[in-house]
Write a structure and sequence with these properties.
transferase, pyrimidine biosynthesis, SH3 type barrels, binds zinc ion, Asp_carbamoyltrfase_reg_C, binds cytidine-5'-triphosphate, mainly beta, zinc, transferase activity, 2 domains
Length: about 150
């Protein structure tokens, strides 16, 4: 790739989340709990050209790896994403996200009376369906607005 094509600088150590569904980068940041105050060094590319996807988003987080729970939720909004672990400028590990059977944490149940949203030490848990997710505790189903359930607390 020539210098003219490089839009977002390479990173030395950290995680590159590539091939994110165009338009989902800000939701990916929310899943990772990254906001103006979080202190992480982060680069974001939105709707950059991609051979494979036509157009894609890309997020690079320096000095940090992702938890499996974060990757699981990420797969729901960016099913074609690739997770690249970078060390000393080299990609040392690369894998596609996989749709999990359940997701734990990160999302909150929209049911205000669900045990996971009451003042109890119960972590959220959803079964992953073909077309949405279902709270394991109260059976509430979320279909279209999964990104709206990202926990911003
Ligand atoms: N990357 C980075 N910093 C590095 C190394 C790689 O930001 N030090 C980024 C690249 O810009 C690319 C992604 O990590 O967006 C994956 O890098 P690489 O595997 O080298 O690129 P490709 O072979 O194009 O990846 P793929 O086949 O997954 O599209
Ligand atoms: Zn619930």
């Amino acid at each position: 790739m020539s210098d003219r094509e490089l839009r977002v600088s390479k990173i030395r150590d950290g995680t590159v989340i590539d091939h994110i569904t165009a338009g989902q980068a800000l939701n990916v940041l929310a899943i990772l709990g990254i906001d103006a105050d979080s202190g992480d060094a982060v680069s974001v590319g939105m709707r950059v050209p991609s051979d494979r996807l036509g157009s894609k988003d890309i997020v690079k987080v320096e000095g940090r790896e992702l938890s499996q729970d974060e990757v699981d939720v990420l797969s729901l909004i960016a099913p074609a994403a690739t997770i690249n672990i970078v060390q000393e400028f080299d990609v040392v590990k690369k894998h596609r996200v996989e749709r999990p059977e359940e997701v734990v944490g990160v999302l909150s149940c929209p049911n205000r009376h669900c045990i996971t949203t009451e003042d109890e030490p119960v972590e959220s848990r959803f079964d992953v369906l073909d077309d949405g997710i279902r709270c394991t505790y109260c059976d509430t189903i979320v279909r279209d607005a999964i990104a709206e359930q990202i926990d911003v607390a």
